[in-house]
């Protein structure tokens, strides 16, 4: 079955009769692939500059780690701003503006004279650009797909893996030729490609859903009551108000006092066509914080908060760890590239598994998080090139299963659903900002204190274990909340069924009916 789309100019929206699961969505998926490569791919490849920055600025590990830490914090802390701007100005303009900020921050950082300059250029400017580029792209991609959402998002998110695989060796070789400053300048110019990808993000409109919501339900109800009145009333001028009280829609329980006032204009020649007109569309909220009242979302947000501790530090410290074990620079870059390739397969595998039905996706995610914690614990026990290579491949595969699915999983009914995903993603990434700020510096402090890179991986594993605990609580909170709502609805129905007498009628109305009944009785006696 094909989905018809209205052909429109490149700058306008795509209008479909249902979620296309393809169409222009494939172009959006390609744009997301490139955006992933030029955002998270660069962040994860930034470890190749660590030793150069420490030597150039004569700084410690922890102070250099603050560059990426501030960048990740700004990226996640400003997520609600990204949601508000996307809902106000559209995803296309926001992503294009984000691409300009990312490129400007990286280019300016290549001329930095101190680590403080790096905090501002890469940390603040590029961090804000990363937020405006990544989050709107993954949000609009989820709107273009339904049945294939998990698989397409997972495959498209492999862009960062291919970027790490290609950028790490390329930047390492480029540094030897032109130095780290010009290498960073080249990366900044390359990131202008985000702006081109943003121009491909056409908004999507599902016309059939809007028309279904625009159907006025009152038309059939009024027709029903009119037919009942024609069958029960003896004439148009009947004064038997007892018929009207039982069949008129104005006397449905709960509306006895409000509806008669609304019917008066109809008797003075109001056009019936006005009642059938399409009601005004409700205004879209720029940011819906009602998700914070959902216990399942709160648990899922805490999962993201603690799991983020294990996302970035291993990629940043794998090269310094390998160098501390006596592994050469070239072989260290190969380890990081192998991790990226394994992450590609992990993302594809997770998307393929989550695309199967019926399956409880939240439980699959939980298993992957537990196995990812095991991978983090395994790093300190590795020795030599091949030991680190095996741990990196295992970690990369498990990281791919989690990193490529934890944000799209917000669209599932076990968390918040597709209707509230845009606002939920902004709040969710905002909560992650605390871990993004504290994670790398915490690992750096532990490394400087213990003089051992293994402590950084232990801290990441501890955060991942806490994340797994909160993720395990998401489904019970969701089912418990639904069960509680069902009990409340049943209790309300019982209260309504056992309620007291019906709503009181006007006194003059009752007196008039009694008077009519007495007069009709006297009239029948006189006839007899």
From TrEMBL:
Gene3D superfamilies with a match to the protein in the record: MFS general substrate transporter like domains (1.20.1250.20)
* This protein's record includes keyword Transmembrane: yes
**Comp. bias (Polar residues):** 241-253, 268-278
Name one cellular component (GO) term: basolateral plasma membrane
Q: Which domain of life is it from?
A: Eukaryota
A Pfam family recorded for this sequence: MFS_1
Task: Tell me one GO molecular function of this protein.
Answer: monocarboxylic acid transmembrane transporter activity
The record's annotation in InterPro entries points to: MCT7, MFS, MFS_dom, MFS_trans_sf, Proton-linked_MCT
Looking at the record, the residues that make up the Major facilitator superfamily (MFS) profile domain are 25-479
Q: Which residues cross the membrane?
A: 24-43, 63-81, 93-112, 118-139, 151-174, 180-201, 297-319, 331-350, 362-379, 385-411, 423-443, 455-474
What membrane topology is given?
Multi-pass membrane protein
Compartment list = Basolateral cell membrane
* Record's keyword terms, sorted: Cell membrane, Membrane, Phosphoprotein, Transmembrane, Transmembrane helix, Transport
Q: Does the keyword Transmembrane apply?
A: yes
- Where do Basic and acidic residues bias regions lie? 256-267
User: What's the stated role of this polypeptide?
Assistant: Monocarboxylate transporter selective for taurine. May associate with BSG/CD147 or EMB/GP70 ancillary proteins to mediate facilitative efflux or influx of taurine across the plasma membrane. The transport is pH- and sodium-independent. Rather low-affinity, is likely effective for taurine transport in tissues where taurine is present at high concentrations.
PANTHER family, alphabetically?
Answer: MONOCARBOXYLATE TRANSPORTER, MONOCARBOXYLATE TRANSPORTER 7
Assembly mode: Forms functional complexes with BSG/CD147 or EMB/GP70 ancillary proteins.
Please identify the protein, giving its name as recorded.
Answer: Monocarboxylate transporter 7
Ranked from the top, the taxonomy reads: Eukaryota, Metazoa, Chordata, Craniata, Vertebrata
């Amino acid at each position: 079955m094909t989905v018809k789309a209205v052909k429109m100019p490149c700058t306008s929206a795509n209008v479909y009769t249902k979620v296309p699961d393809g169409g222009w969505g494939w172009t959006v998926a390609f744009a997301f692939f490139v955006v992933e490569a030029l955002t998270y791919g660069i962040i994860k490849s930034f470890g190749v500059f660590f030793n150069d920055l420490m030597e150039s600025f004569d700084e410690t590990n922890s102070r250099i780690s603050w560059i990426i830490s501030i960048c990740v914090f700004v990226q996640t802390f400003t997520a609600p701003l990204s949601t508000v701007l996307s809902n106000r100005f559209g995803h296309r303009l926001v992503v294009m503006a984000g691409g300009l900020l990312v490129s400007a921050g990286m280019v300016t950082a290549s001329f930095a004279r101190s680590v403080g300059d790096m905090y501002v250029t890469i940390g603040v400017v590029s961090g804000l650009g990363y937020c405006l580029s990544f989050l709107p792209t993954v949000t609009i991609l989820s709107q273009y797909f339904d049945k294939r959402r998990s698989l397409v998002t997972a495959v498209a998110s492999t862009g960062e893996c291919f970027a790490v695989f290609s950028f790490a060796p390329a930047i390492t070789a480029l540094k030897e030729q032109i130095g780290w400053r010009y290498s960073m300048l080249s990366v900044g110019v390359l990131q202008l490609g985000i702006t081109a990808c943003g121009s491909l993000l056409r908004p999507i409109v599902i016309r059939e859903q809007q028309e279904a919501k625009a159907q006025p339900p009152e038309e059939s109800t009024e027709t029903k009551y009119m037919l009942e009145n024609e069958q029960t009333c003896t004439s148009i001028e009947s004064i038997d108000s007892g018929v009207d009280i039982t069949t008129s829609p104005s006397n449905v329980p709960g509306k006895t006092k409000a509806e008669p006032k609304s019917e008066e204009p109809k008797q003075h020649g109001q056009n019936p066509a006005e009642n059938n007109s399409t009601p005004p569309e409700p205004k879209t909220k720029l940011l819906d914080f009602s998700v914070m009242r959902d216990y399942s979302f709160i648990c899922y947000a805490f999962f993201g908060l603690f799991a983020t501790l294990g996302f970035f530090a291993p990629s940043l410290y794998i090269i310094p760890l390998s160098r501390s074990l006596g592994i050469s620079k070239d072989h260290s870059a190969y380890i990081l590239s192998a991790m990226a390739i394994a992450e590609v397969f992990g993302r594809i595998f997770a998307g393929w598994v989550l695309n199967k039905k019926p399956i409880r996706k939240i439980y699959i995610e939980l298993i992957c998080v537990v196995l990812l914690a095991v991978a983090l614990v395994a790093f300190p026990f590795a020795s030599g090139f091949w030991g680190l290579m095996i741990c990196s491949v295992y970690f990369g595969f498990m990281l791919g299963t989690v990193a490529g699915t934890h944000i799209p999983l917000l669209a599932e009914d076990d968390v918040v659903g597709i209707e509230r995903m845009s606002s939920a993603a902004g709040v969710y990434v905002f909560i992650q900002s605390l871990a993004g700020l504290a994670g790398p510096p915490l690992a750096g402090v532990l490394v400087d204190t213990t003089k051992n890179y293994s402590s950084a991986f232990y801290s990441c594993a501890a955060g991942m274990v806490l994340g797994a605990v909160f993720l395990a609580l998401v489904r019970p909170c969701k089912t418990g909340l639904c069960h509680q709502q069902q009990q409340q609805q049943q209790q309300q129905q019982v209260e309504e069924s056992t309620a007291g007498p019906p709503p009181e009628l006007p006194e003059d109305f009752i007196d008039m009916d009694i008077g009519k009944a007495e007069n009709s009785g006297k009239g029948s006696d006189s006839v007899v």
